[in-house]
Every structure is written in C-alpha cells, then in structure tokens.
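Throughout our pipeline, every protein is held as a single compact record rather than as scattered files. The remainder of this section carries one protein's record, kept here as part of the documentation.

===
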Amino acid sequence: MTTEKIKNLLNERLNNHLIVFVAKDFSRGVGLEKFLPNFAIVCGTDSEAIDIAKSSGINIFCLNEDSEPGSENAGKILESIVSQGYIKDLQKQLSCSKVSILTFKGSSKIEFVCKKNNWGYLNLDAKTTTYLEEKANFEKLLKDYDGALLQTLSGKLKDINPEILLDQSLEKKLAIQFTHGFAGQSTHFVNYDGFQKLQNEFPEKKVKVTPYITGETLTLNGCIYNDEVYISYPFLQKTGDPEFSRHEGGTCGVIFDKERVLKKVPEEMLEKTIKASYALAENFKKHGLRGFFGFDLVTDGKEVCPIELNPRLTANIHPFTIQQIAKDLSPFLLLHILEFLNIKTETPAKEQYLTPLRGETTSLRNVTDTPFTLNEAKSTTSHTFEHLLTNPEIIEMFILLKNGQSITPDGRWGEKWSL
C-alpha cells in the first residue's frame, strides 16, 4: 500500500482519535503528522526548531515554554497538569472522542497517567519493556537463539569471576554493561584490574560482561507489526568519539550511507547482520517484543554477534522515519502505532525496507563533568531531515536547544544531520 493510500485509510479510521507523542525532544515525533489526521507533540525542552515546526502546521506544546522547567523524561512531562490541560483542550478543539499517548519507551508513570485520564497507551507495557531491556537478562533471553554469540556472564558484579572470559591473559579487556544506561554511558571497557575496581565500587550492581571485541558496532531499526518482522538495512554506530562523548563506550550517532559503512564493514558481514536480525526478532517476539525496536551488534570481521536490544524507539528515529517516508514506505514509527491500535493494513514487501538510507547523525552533548549554560552561535534552519533531502546543497544542518538553557553533564543540547 502506498503512503497516499494509507493516509486515506487513517483519515477514515482515526478521524476522531487524537494521537499525542510525548518526549523530551520534539523532533522525535516529526513525520507522523504526514499520516495522522489528529496529531500533536508534547515536549520538555525548548528548541529553535519548534517555532519553525509550528509554522508548518504541527500542533506542538513545549512545557519549558510555559514557564515550567523542561524535563528529562516523558513521564514527568505528561505528569504535569499543564501538559494534560493542553491535551484535553486540543481534544475538544479537534472534536476527538479518543486520545492515545505514544512515548519513546514503556513507562509505569505514563501508564498511570493514561489510565487516570482514560487515554490509550501506544507502547509496550513497562514490565515487558524493563524485562527486555535489562542487560543482565540478555543471555537468558537468547538461550534459544542459534546464531553466533559472545561468551557472556550476567548477574551482580560481586558474583562474577572475570577470569573465565580472559583466556589466561589478565591484560585482555572486558566489556561491562550496567543494567540501565543511555547512549552507551554505562558501558565500560576494562582489564582485570579495572574490573576489580568496579567490582569493589559497585558490588550489588547487575551487569552483563563479555570479552571486548575490536571491531565495528552495527545497529539497525525494526518493527514487529501484525506478527511480522520488518528490519532496516544496517547502519554503522559512531562510538567513543571524545569530541561528542566523555565515555569510552558512548554512542554519538549513526552513519546510514552504505558506501561509508562498506569502508569499515565487508558486505558479507552486513548480509550476516540482516540474517541474524530477523532470527533475533523472531526470538524476542516470543518474549513479548512488539512494535518498534533497535538492535546493536558487533563484528570482528568473521562473525556478527548481538550485544543489545532496545525495545523502544531509537535516537535516530527522526531522520530514519523521514527517509522511509521519502522512499514511499509506511515508516516503522507508523507501523508501531498501528500495531498498538490493532489497525491492520497492507505493507510494502519486507525487502523494500532493506533499501540503504543516506547521511549520518551526530548528537551534540555536554562532554564535561559540570553543567554549562548554552550559548551557541550556530542556528537552526529547519525542523526536519526532509530539508536536507530536498536541498542537498546544504550538506548539513543543526537542530539546537535555545540558548540560555542549562545543560547537565552528558546532556544533549543539539544534533547535527548531514548527507
């Protein structure tokens, strides 16, 4: 079904249903307005691009603009009486009998707010999200997966003997992932002595420990819709760049372009990644995975091994969605919504979603250990990656928060998109 046909279907099926995307950064939801007849974004941090997006006709409410401090997570944003008031007023204005909330990931706080207001919730429930995202569960979740795997130890740090993974060499490195973290900020690469230091400092912390692989990290997005698995062509994850992250395992963006990816990863490994990802998704589906997800995998040039499941939206969601739309594909973000609304429709063939995309993304973060007040000379020229696709002479653009905001350590103050 073409995007035009699905728009017509949704205009009929959702003509009295308001869908609200709630997130810290408004740009995560941009693109859905092309399909949903009644759509709004409620966000927590003020960006120069919000005014541009509003002028294009998108309904956006920024909590920070309403004299309330911006928030780091969707739960606190939606918990605000001011945010709830905006949604209820817009519901009346649009004459909608139903409201449903979409967020970056499952959250018990948002589930509570939705239940209190009799709103639908378009995400995996918090219990399933936490279970799937728990890194110490990764090994257990993959017990029926027959693809290549890294040797893994999981559990509390105090209970793990790292020598099992070190092959007699105590100078070899281990990769340690703490239970929860974002953008690789809780990933550590350490030798035996470094492991003992973490073990002594955080004995009760749950972790996943694997041998450190010197190789490239691949990532991709996927969606389980109507019990079918759809995945994207793999991208290259940008990791450990000290200009954009103060953490050795910190991620700072992705490279979509196939030609640039092939300079670092042989095509044979990309094909293995695709095959492995279909099998992984079928495996995780048995554990309750539905809707949008992301996989991270590492390759040593011979095998591809999964290292992480993100049972939620991913940081590259906006440029990814816009490029799928540009290829006349019903984007995974839309299929995610239809999955949780139980709306069935035809989809493009799975092979069409494997078409490589263009460009790359770079997250701009505070890489110091102290807060700073944003005072950036650059300016935002548009609100969507579509601006780059239709004006390739621009080459790159920025989406920035407004100056004057306090940026915490590791806080994201902008993003650079380039072709």
